[in-house]
């Protein structure tokens, strides 16, 4: 049994990590300021120790890492549009907060910190699939902030010997992704709209492609990264390896539900990339990772949750 800290553990991905860690018999502490997370995401695992605090407060980070062996750093303001409209607040969370938790983890001599990176770091380069050794080209403050934080992780490994691993996420979706927020992932918004027999919004022509990844796959990759000997100091994609256009995604969800609801097309959003697809060969080599839940099965599970969720609007 090990002792884990999950920053942002009351959020979407963080709460899934906490759930799996508890299921494996580990001790879990969550640090979250509840700016985007929710206490009810942890209601089913009362044995989790919850600490309300902000990563921008170094003292809060220092208290949170006491006695911790592994830090799973998920806390962020995960929104491209929000970072475009308010880059200062996003930077405080995504860069300042990340630096604070790295300093606290270094000083507490934790075994390893696994950081939630983002595929947005690749930008809009035409080469597909995206490989970890490709040049980065962030298009938004959010993408730049996530890239800066992963570079801080690598620097802390090189300078201080703190073991860090960055897992670059690709359009993660699944239960507990809040569909009530305008900044939610497109799948949660699509599912909520179609379940309510309403037309979803598509920004752009719908031909843009994404490497949608069900959250269980990400949880598996992150927990493998805690233990994999050769992963320290590395940046690793975790996804499914495929991609699908937003138009085809909507067709697939309609088919599952037996509906035929057309979207409303709106102007493309600033900072959005056109195409995204992950090369996951490095994850297979270093982590022994392979996706276990495909897109359609993930959509079915997400739709089932949305249909029964109290937060559905």
What's a concise summary of this model?
Helix 5 (141-160) links the parallel strand 5 and strand 6.
Describe the model.
The chain is of the alpha/beta class. The protein has ten helices and 13 strands. Strands 3-2-1-4-5-6-11 form a seven-stranded parallel beta sheet, sandwiched between helices. Strands 7-10 form a two-stranded parallel sheet. Helix 6 crosses helix 10. The radius of gyration is 18 Å and the shape is globular.
Helix content: 25-40%
Number of helices: 10
Mean pLDDT: 95
Q: What strand line-up does the widest sheet have? A: 3-2-1-4-5-6-11
Characterize the biggest β-sheet: 7 strands, parallel
Q: How would you classify the helix and strand content by structural class? A: alpha/beta
The Rg value, from CA coordinates, equals 18 Å
Write the layout of secondary structure elements.
Layout: E1 3-7, H1 12-23, E2 27-32, E3 49-52, H2 58-64, E4 70-73, H3 80-85, H4 87-108, E5 112-118, H5 141-160, E6 163-169, E7 172-173, H6 186-195, E8 201-203, E9 209-210, E10 213-214, H7 215-227, E11 235-238, E12 244-245, H8 246-257, E13 264-266, H9 281-287, H10 295-308
Parallel strand pairs: 1-2, 1-4, 2-3, 4-5, 5-6, 6-11, 7-10, 8-13
Antiparallel strand pairs: 9-12
Helix pairs in contact: 1-7, 4-5, 6-8, 6-10
